[in-house]
């Protein structure tokens, strides 16, 4: 038994509450996925700017240590959807 | 299924619901930020109406509370804005009231919100572990004590630290014009709520006041930026390690494999011992032989 929980029997109200809130959360999740899909074009621009910054100002390796990333180290975009929510 | 990846979620325009779970009485309203659909464990924004009161009582699950706005009277103590409480399960909290109203974050970590009226601790309660501190006034900001580290300008206050898992609850802030040009992921869950201010991440865009995320392990986030700064509360369920890189298109599976490769390089002896094929090298902690009990309720199902 976990130390962070004292075993108990869930009430019918609690089970219903969890079920109702889980259904609401699923809607929120789907909305987030949609919102993040809608952001795709803007995100692509952000990625290009990120690549420019890590090639000029530098990539943050640790705290204030930076390294300028050469062209041949930049990743190429794979042939699959760019997902950010999983 | 546990909690899904909720990121980003901004709760400010979402209406409150009246709390109807047994024991909480009238005058408590909530919004769910995230919820474990198996256990009911959840993170909530809670509004206590002026005049709300609750008798002494306990929760079956550990509970964390942070006062975002207003104040609470708890026994003879006043929890002002910025107060943080970690209440182990079964510890009886004195009578709680909110004479002028309050808005709080409440985290029920291993089960749905529960309240059992009692002015005595449960026999299994570990009162000595309770944390009660004003996060804004009683703790100083320090640099994030991890390597590799976040960039200069991100500061941390540790509110609660689990010595077994190294999971912790913390305040963090970004100073104005903060930049961190890398992509990060972790091998732990990470959760955050913006008490004030806006930050930006390359995957999710702008996260304003009232913005929230619950992020499972291995998920890319960053680069990071904040124009005017922000103040937030964060949590992890185990040690936070920053795996930095600059490939925005990697998947959680690829990130996980890369983390294992790093483990092989950085803790090779331990890695080789644990992965032995003869099946005898199971972790065992001589100080905590039942160490799994301290980690997750889910592990025992």
Radius of gyration of chain A over all CA atoms, rounded? 22 Å
Shape of chain B: globular
What's the total count of β strands of chain B?
Answer: 26
Helix run count of chain B: 2
Structural classification of chain B: mainly beta
Order of helices and strands of chain B: EEEEEEEEEEEEEEEEEEEEEEEEEEHH
User: In CATH's first tier, which class of the largest domain in chain B applies?
Assistant: Mainly Beta
How many beta-strand elements of chain A? 2
Account of the 3D structure:
The complex is a heterodimer of chains A (86) and B (301). Chain A has 86 residues and is mainly alpha-helical. Chain A has a domain at 23-73. In chain A, 53% of the residues lie in helices and 8% in strands. Chain A has helices spanning 12-38, 40-58, and strands at 59-62, 65-67. A two-stranded antiparallel sheet of chain A has the order 1-2. Chain A is elongated and about 60 Å long. The mean pLDDT of chain A is 96. By secondary structure, chain B is mostly beta strands. Chain B folds into 2 domains: 6-134, Sandwich (Jelly Rolls); 140-301, Jelly Rolls, CATH 2.60.120.10. Chain B is 7% helix and 39% strand. Chain B is built from 2 helices and 26 strands. Chain B has helices spanning 252-266, 268-274; strands at residues 6-10, 17-18, 28-35, 42-48, 52-54, 57-58, 63-70, 72-74, 77-79, 83-87, 96-98, 102-108, 116-117, 131-134, 142-143, 154-161, 168-174, 178-180, 183-185, 190-197, 199-201, 205-207, 211-215, 224-226, 230-236, 243-245. In chain B, the strands form 6 sheets. Chain B has a 7-stranded antiparallel beta sheet with strand order 1-23-20-25-17-16-15, with no helix packed on it. A 7-stranded antiparallel beta sheet of chain B has the order 2-3-4-12-7-10-14, with no helix packed on it. In chain B, helix 1 crosses helix 2. The longest helix of chain B is centred in the last third of the chain and has 15 residues, at 252-266. Chains A and B meet through helix 1, helix 2 and strand 1 of A and strand 1 and strand 3 of B.
């Amino acid at each position: 038994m976990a130390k962070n929980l004292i075993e108990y029997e869930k009430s019918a109200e609690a089970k219903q509450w969890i079920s109702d809130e889980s259904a609401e959360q699923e809607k929120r999740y789907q909305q987030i996925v949609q919102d993040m899909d809608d952001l795709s074009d803007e995100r692509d621009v952000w990625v290009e700017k990120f690549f420019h910054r890590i090639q000029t100002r530098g990539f943050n390796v640790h705290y204030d240590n930076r390294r300028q990333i050469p062209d041949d180290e930049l990743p190429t975009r794979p042939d699959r959807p760019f997902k950010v929510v999983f | 299924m546990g909690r899904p990846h909720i990121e980003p979620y901004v709760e400010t325009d979402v209406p409150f619901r009246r709390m109807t779970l047994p024991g909480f009485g009238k005058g408590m309203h909530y919004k769910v930020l995230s919820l474990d659909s198996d256990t009911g464990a959840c993170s909530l924004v809670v509004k206590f109406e002026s005049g709300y009161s609750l008798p002494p009582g306990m929760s079956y699950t550990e509970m964390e509370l942070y006062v975002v706005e207003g104040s609470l009277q708890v026994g003879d103590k006043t929890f002002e804005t910025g107060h943080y409480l970690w209440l182990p399960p079964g510890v009886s909290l004195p009578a709680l009231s909110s004479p002028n109203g309050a808005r709080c974050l409440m985290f029920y970590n291993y089960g749905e919100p529960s309240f059992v009226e009692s002015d005595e601790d449960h026999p299994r309660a570990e009162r000595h572990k309770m944390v009660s501190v004003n996060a804004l006034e009683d703790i100083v900001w320090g640099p994030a004590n991890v390597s590799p580290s976040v960039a200069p300008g991100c500061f941390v206050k540790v509110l609660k630290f689990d010595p077994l898992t190294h999971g912790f609850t913390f305040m963090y802030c970004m100073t104005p014009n903060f930049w961190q040009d890398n992509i990060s992921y972790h091998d732990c869950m990470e959760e955050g709520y913006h008490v004030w201010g806006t930050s930006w991440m390359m995957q999710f865009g702008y996260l304003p006041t009232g913005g929230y995320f619950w992020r499972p392990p291995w998920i890319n986030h960053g680069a990071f930026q904040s124009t005017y700064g922000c103040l937030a509360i964060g949590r992890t369920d185990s040690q936070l390690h920053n795996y930095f890189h600059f490939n925005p298109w990697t998947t959680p599976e690829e990130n996980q494999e890369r983390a294992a490769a790093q483990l092989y390089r950085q803790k090779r002896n331990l890695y080789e011992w644990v992965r032995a094929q003869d099946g005898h090298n199971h972790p065992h902690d001589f100080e905590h032989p039942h160490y799994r009990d301290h980690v997750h309720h889910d592990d025992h199902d």
